[in-house]
Amino acid sequence: MSQVEWDSDELEEKPFNRQYMKRLIKYLLPYKRILSIVVLIVLVNMALSLAEPLLLGYLIDEGILKKDFTIIYWIGGVLLGIRLLGWLFGYLDTRMINFTGQRILFDLRQQLFNHLQTLSFRFFDGRPAGKIMSRITNDTNAIGELINGGLITMVMEFTHLIGIVAILLWMDWKLALLSFITMPLLYLIIVVLQPKIEGSWSRSRKTMSAINGNLNETIQGIRVIQAFSRQKENNRRFDKLNSNNKQAFMRAITLESTVWPSVEMIGMIGTCIVIWFGAREVMNDALTLGFLMAFINYLWRFWGPLSALSKVYSQVLSAMASAERIFEILDTDPEVADRTNAKPMKPIRGEVVFENVGFRYGDDKPQVLRDVNLRIKPGQRVALVGPTGAGKSTIVNLLMRFYDTTEGRILIDGEDVKGVTLDSLRRQMGIVLQDSFIFSGTIEENLRYGNEDASDEALRRAAENVRIDRFVSQFADGYQTQVEERGSKLSVGQRQLLAFGCVLLSDPRILILDEATSSVDTETEQHIQAALQTVLEGRTAFIIAHRLSTIRDADLILVVQNGTISEQGTHEELIAAGGLYRKLYTTQFDMQQSLAMQTGA
Ligand SMILES: Nc1ncnc2c1ncn2[C@@H]1O[C@H](COP(=O)(O)OP(=O)(O)OP(=O)(O)O)[C@@H](O)[C@H]1O
After folding, report:
1. pLDDT in the model for residue 141
2. 344 ligand 1 Cβ < 6 A
3. What CA–CA distance (Å, rounded) separates 201 from 256?
4. Predicted TM-score of the model (pTM)
5. DSSP letter at 342?
6. I need a surface site. Which of 41, 154, 205, 222 has the fewest CB within 10 A?
7. How far apart are CA 63 and CA 65, in angstroms?
């Protein structure tokens, strides 16, 4: 599978690829019965509609010219019947194909979503969330459109075209060939201009997605925009994008409005040749009037399928681009996955050992950790400190098995984490990130995120222990209050407390905590610290600490520097050692002192 570009502008069309088409057709197989019925109905409908001009010719020759009203009534009735049947078949077809198309879309989207959730962090690194989302929505839609409309149009219009050509040749091959004289001209117009039209539609769509991207960024960043008074500059940028879109659209529509009328014009030349030649034949009694009318009627029907097919073709090409992107996701295997002989992790006591652990985020990326050796006893409270980018988060990422070590191994209670099932391991571990993620739903649902079956009593106790009961009771709906995605209804401190509550309820044996850097008011800070003491009790804990004052009583402090543990010990030991920790501590301490003096606290 080719490497699909994620950062650059994604191509909207790709050449026809038989392999992708075969894979796409596999999604149709479970519905082959219903699809065969659809195709059958389409073909019957097409045959009925193709009979119309012949019936019309018969009506003229045998009914009108011979003044036979029985034939006129009969043919009129049959034509009406054909249209009625056509309407009924069309209705059935549309329903069936839309139903099947939606089922296939449903299957594809579900498969993608399920697969996406199994993918490792490395997949998401460097792949913008917006683009992943667009793959699941836009790209599946493009494929859905092809199935819904495209494939049936293709079958229908192709048989229509073949049917028309066959009937024309059968009726009078010389006259048919004469009317095809203009074909090369037509071919030239379609081949040269149609890609240009598609190109300009594609530009129009691209400019539209630029508008969407800009809108998205503006809404997400509205606070920063207003804070920096950037509205004017933003308006200018948006204005440019907006007029790009307008121009692209106008060009597309101008081209489109010239091509099809010219195609019809050329078609008319063919028809005129038939009229000039055919009329003479009718006058010489070599052809009947009804025959000529039927022939011309078929000629007029020729352009519809041609235009529909050229549109379907570009639909196929854009579905190829979508298929490539979708299959790239489906073909990516999760890097961190259960080994075939993985066993469930026993109930964890909490001993953690790092043995010569080394790590890099990618083969072409620099070494981030090297020779990390640690031995943590069950229940120990470990603090990780060090400059930004030193590797603290990486250490906990490895412990959670978000990534696998590239060198060395990590043992929990003597078990190599790579040898146990991910589910059994992660269920016994908990993590609270700096920016606690709140899912849309109620506060209770968020609390239960790690343990849906917790009793109401346990929920209440956890909430009290982390002191969220106080602010929750102020909401009219209490624990049933709906919180929005990313928890914008809650303050930073409240979100952190909620995340603690969730972790407490899921009762992990090893807890990882990325201490919030954002400052909260002193009272919330005290709440957080008190809640933290409860949450940490009886668990092995790793705390990535930014405020060194909060970790003075940690059992072990690890100083991470350039991907290695440069110092380790208790606060007193490290201060006495006079290394980096002492430097960091005294700098922070001095800063706090001077801040306190300035604010008069
Ligand atoms: N997903 C990633 N892909 C590639 N490189 C990464 C990734 N995450 C982190 N890094 C790199 O690994 C190094 C260590 O990063 P890490 O996040 O572990 O540092 P940290 O000590 O936690 O920093 P901070 O205190 O700022 O959070 C950095 O140089 C960073 O650029």
Report:
1. 86
2. no
3. 10
4. 0.75
5. -
6. 222
7. 6
Do the beta carbons of residue 322 and residue 138 sit within 8 Å? yes
Best residue among 359, 364, 368, 518 to mutate for probing ligand 1, ranked by most atoms within 8 Å of CB: 368
Beta-strand relationship, 407-412 and 415-416: antiparallel
Residue 372 near ligand 1, beta carbon < 6 Å: no
CA distance 19 to 331: 14
Whether residue 485 has its Cβ less than 6 Å from ligand 1: no
Q: Are 207 and 241 in contact (CB under 8 A)?
A: yes
Give average pLDDT by consecutive 10-residue segment, the chain, 601 residues.
45 75 89 90 89 93 91 94 93 88 90 90 78 80 82 84 93 90 83 80 81 84 87 92 93 86 84 91 92 92 82 82 88 88 92 95 90 93 92 93 94 94 92 81 88 87 84 86 73 83 88 72 71 82 83 90 92 89 83 66 47
Q: What is the rounded distance in angstroms from the CA atom of residue 217 to the CA atom of residue 231?
A: 13
Ligand 1 atom at minimal distance to the Cα of residue 390: 21
Contacts of residue 312, Cβ cutoff 8 Å, sequence gap at least 6: 149, 150, 153, 154, 157
Residue with the two structure tokens 């502008």: 9
Which of 363, 385, 392, 396 to mutate for ligand 1's pocket (most ligand atoms within 8 Å of CB)? 392
- Confidence (pLDDT) at 529: 75
Question: What is the spatial distance between Cα 546 and Cα 107, in angstroms, rounded to a whole number?
Answer: 46
Helices (H), 69-172: 69-118, 121-124, 129-134, 140-145, 152-171
Residue whose token pair is 């909207």: 12
Please tell me if the CB atom of residue 364 comes closer than 6 angstroms to any atom of ligand 1: no
CA 581 – ligand 1 centroid, Å? 20
Q: What pLDDT is attached to residue 3?
A: 42
| H, E, C per residue of 474-531 | CCCCHHHCEECHHHCCCCHHHHHHHHHHHHHHHCCCEEEEECCCCCCCHHHHHHHHHH
Contact 228, 197 (CB under 8 A): no
Q: Is the CB of 290 under 6 A from ligand 1?
A: no
Residue 2 confidence (pLDDT): 38
pLDDT of residue 138: 81
Residue 198 contacts residue 13 (beta carbons within 8 Å)? yes
Residue nearest to atom 10 of ligand 1 (CA): 361
For residue 563, give the ligand 1 atom closest to its CA: 14
CA dihedral (468, 471, 474, 479) positive or negative: negative
Assess contact for 437 and 486: CB atoms under 8 A: yes
The C-alpha angle 505, 508, 512, rounded to 5 degrees, equals: 110
Residue pointed to by tokens 């009272």 = 523
DSSP state at residue 382: E
Closest residue CA from atom 13 of ligand 1: 389
